[in-house]
Amino acid sequence: MLDLLLGNCRLPGGSAPVDLAIAGGRIVGIGPARGPARETVDVGGHLVTPGLVEAHIHLDKALLGDRVSGSAETAADAIRLTAIAKRGFTAADIEARGRRVLDLAVAAGTTAMRAHVEVDPIVHLAGMEAMLALKREYAPAIDLQLCAFAQEGILQAPGTEALLVRALEMGADLVGGCPYNDTDARRHIEIVFALAREFDVDADFHVDFSDEPEHLHVREIARQTMRTGWQGRVAVGHLTELAALPAEEQGTLIGVLAAAGIGVISLPLTDLYLMGRRDERNVRRGLTPIRRLLAAGVPVALASNNVRNPFTPIGTADLAHLTFVTAVAAHMGTPDLVRQLVAAVTTHAARILNLRDYGCAEGSRADLVVWDCDRLDEIVTALPARRLVVKAGRVTVEHERRVIERWRVGGTDG
Ligand SMILES: [Zn+2]
Are 266 and 376 in the same domain? Predict the structure, then answer.
């Protein structure tokens, strides 16, 4: 007995629609229908992709629009304004705001997510408590990876290292650093790698978040990745400074990232919003060079980062929106580049998060999205609605859409 039979699915790259047989949370057959099944859905030839993967988001400081006065002009501003708001955070408050964002993400088809959870002398472990509760509550709909994250620095915020250890003992899945916001970036990076080794977890850094190549801490991250043998287990977010290097230096550094197996996470809404603020003419876009990274074989994810706070005043937690914005912001409009944008919120993101058995092949975990379109490129170009979301072989979200074009029905009666 199958758990679910999704009939008439158009898979990415496939021409004729196929049926997906699902049991035990996995795809067990692709081809003509094989029943019986507990639930059968004919998806009518619509596109089916693996679930969307959110590689970098801050649920704990999302939705602060109503409690932060003043708007951020720079990243430092955003950190300062958010730190003030953070003094009022409680576990219950973090949980309530996190839940609202998770509901948006799940409805949009996100089935896996890496959330950075701030751990520092301001908020202590309240974020971890809230996020561990959400991880359990949302387990039927989404896999939540929790990254214990030192947003306020480690050396300049005494007590943070011990709190990171405590967060990892509580169940954080990985550890995250922010070397640009500390007094000794090299030592900060060393501490994060030492924790990654001690707990045998991946590491994820916020790095090189500026218009000019004034930090380039990613070089030290790459060195320590190689030294510790952590290739394939390190991700970096922002990396906007890479775009400011002359082409040749940029190429050399991209080669170093590729050799170290480091994944890059572009955060387009935050980066477009906060970069280029000192430019009076020809305001730069401030995105990491996505096309060059992809061409060198570096996996690149697009992620939401912040949703409606001083870092990013807007946000829907819908990853398709990021592909739409990035197509124009990063000049990615050819058929191949548009497919890469979809990969940036699916397969590349899954690779960076080290998700196992991700995809639409036989044996893959049955985390799927049924889109209201036929072709993969339409995800980017037309932002189609989601029709169904499937997590671990069960339908988790069903969208109904109803449009009544009353103007067509004629009549001029008032
Ligand atoms: Zn972030």
Answer: no
| Run of H or E including 274 | helix 268-274
| Ligand 1 centroid, distance to 323 Cα (angstroms) | 18
Decide if 9 is inside a domain: yes
Together in a domain, 167 and 241: yes
Determine the distance separating the centroid of ligand 1 and the alpha carbon of 54, expressed in angstroms. Answer: 12
Task: Compute the distance from residue 155 Cα to the ligand 1 centre, in Å.
Answer: 19
Q: How far is CA 250 from the centre of its chain?
A: 24
Q: Which of 18, 17, 21 is nearest to 39 (CA)?
A: 21
Query: What strand order describes the sheet that includes 52-57?
Result: 52-57, 110-118, 143-149, 174-177, 202-207, 234-238, 262-266, 300-302
Going from the Cα of 47 to the center of ligand 1, the distance in angstroms, rounded, reads: 31
pLDDT tens digits in sequence order for the chain, 414 residues long: 999 999 999 999 877 999 999 999 999 999 987 779 999 999 999 999 999 999 999 999 999 988 887 678 888 889 889 989 999 999 999 999 999 999 999 999 999 999 999 999 999 999 999 999 999 999 999 999 999 999 999 999 999 999 999 999 999 999 999 999 999 999 999 999 999 999 999 999 999 999 999 999 999 999 999 999 999 999 999 999 999 999 999 999 999 999 999 999 999 999 999 999 999 999 999 999 999 999 999 999 999 999 999 999 999 999 999 999 999 999 999 999 999 999 999 999 999 999 999 999 999 999 999 999 999 999 999 999 999 999 999 999 999 989 999 999 876 555
Q: What is the CATH number of the domain that holds 37?
A: 2.30.40.10
219 Cα to the center of ligand 1, angstroms:
19
Burial class (CB in 10 A: 0-12, 13-18, 19+), 403: exposed
**Distance, CA of 47 to CA of 370 (rounded, Å):** 6
Q: How far is the CA of 227 from the centre of ligand 1 (A)?
A: 25
